[in-house]
Amino acid sequence: TAHDGTRRRVLLKLSGEAFAGGGGLGVDPDVVHAIAREIATVVRAGTEVAVVIGGGNFFRGAELQVRGMDRARSDYMGMLGTVMNCLALQDFLIKEGIETRVQTAITMGQVAEPYLPLRAVRHLEKGRVVIFGAGMGMPYFSTDTTAVQRALEIHAEVLLMGKNGVDGVYDSDPRTNAGAVKFDSLDYAEVISRDLKVADLTAITLCKDNGLPILVFELLAEGNIARAVKGEKIGTLISQ
Ligand code: UDP
Questions:
Q1: Band (25; pLDDT cuts 50, 70, 90)
Q2: What is the rounded average pLDDT of the residues 40-62?
Q3: Which residues contact 65 (CB under 8 A, 6 or more apart)?
Q4: Is 170 close to ligand 1, i.e. is its CB under 6 Å away?
Q5: Which domain holds residue 60?
């Protein structure tokens, strides 16, 4: 972290749902373009940015399982969906003039590099954005857990968790409860004991065990990625 509070290296987790825009399914290029512009701004200002993108705009393994599919196979479908989001973001980052590499946990040499943590760090040091695709390559995990694992492995200072349509963590669902109260900060134990819907328990536990702070914030509000990177008081900060 610099003297003014600006983060030096961050892991940005983007929800797949956000990529769909109003459509719910697939990729809305206007949304991806807007996100790419914001990422480009912070990269130009000198922050190293790695990205993990979800795949909820295509498939979620657990939802396909309910519809009768084998869980592991549908999780692989979910992971492949995240790669399409990665390529969309890569495209718009390149259009912004930002060098970008996609690294996937399932190898697919024609479209991406394999996940190589040391190489990812080298890319970051050179000012390239690194986008991690295909989750961790393992069924039964989420991209939230992936984001925590990647953040730890590349030594990101913070996990910036961009949400779609909610500006932090609340004591109840603000979409259904008008009286829901937002937390400015929380500790991991509270997130777990109150069963707050920040990320899945595996992801939160991994953060807690390793002391990785998470900032939950509204992704699509203009300028928010830069605010999060600068350490401004937005969203909800979860730490020890
Ligand atoms: N997934 C998986 N292993 C991983 C990461 C993701 O099996 O390491 C699958 C899982 O089926 C998940 C889907 O990919 O539902 C899409 O990811 P996620 O639900 O985390 O996306 P988000 O909700 O963030 O858009």
A1: confident
A2: 96
A3: 71, 74
A4: no
A5: 9-239
pLDDT tens-digit map of 145-190: 999 999 999 999 999 999 988 999 999 988 899 999 999 999 999 9
CB of 150 sitting under 6 A from ligand 1: no
Distance of CA 218 to CAs 14, 222, 228, Å? Answer: 10, 9, 10
Residue 64 in any domain: the answer is yes
Q: How far away, in angstroms, is 103 Cα from ligand 1 center?
A: 16
Over residues 94-136, the pLDDT tens digits come to: 999 999 999 999 999 999 999 999 999 999 999 999 999 999 9
Question: For 4-28, what is the mean pLDDT?
Answer: 91
149 lines ligand 1 (CB under 6 A): no
C-alpha span between 170 and 37 (Å, rounded): 29
Instruction: Return the structure tokens found at 152.
Output: 């730890």
CATH number reported for the structural domain that contains residue 193 in this entry: 3.40.1160.10
Does residue 3 fall inside a structural domain? Answer: no
The tally of domains found in the chain comes to 1
From the CB of 162, is ligand 1 less than 6 Å away? no
Phi and psi angles of residue 113, each rounded to the nearest 5 degrees, phi first = -75, 155
Q: How far is the CA of 56 from the centre of ligand 1 (A)?
A: 7
What pTM does this model have?
0.96
User: Per the domain annotation, does 1 fall within a domain?
Assistant: no
55 in contact with ligand 1, CB cutoff 6 A: yes
**Complex ipTM over 0.85:** yes
Q: Which of 1, 6, 41 shows the shortest CA–CA distance to 228?
A: 6
Within-domain flag for 58 = yes
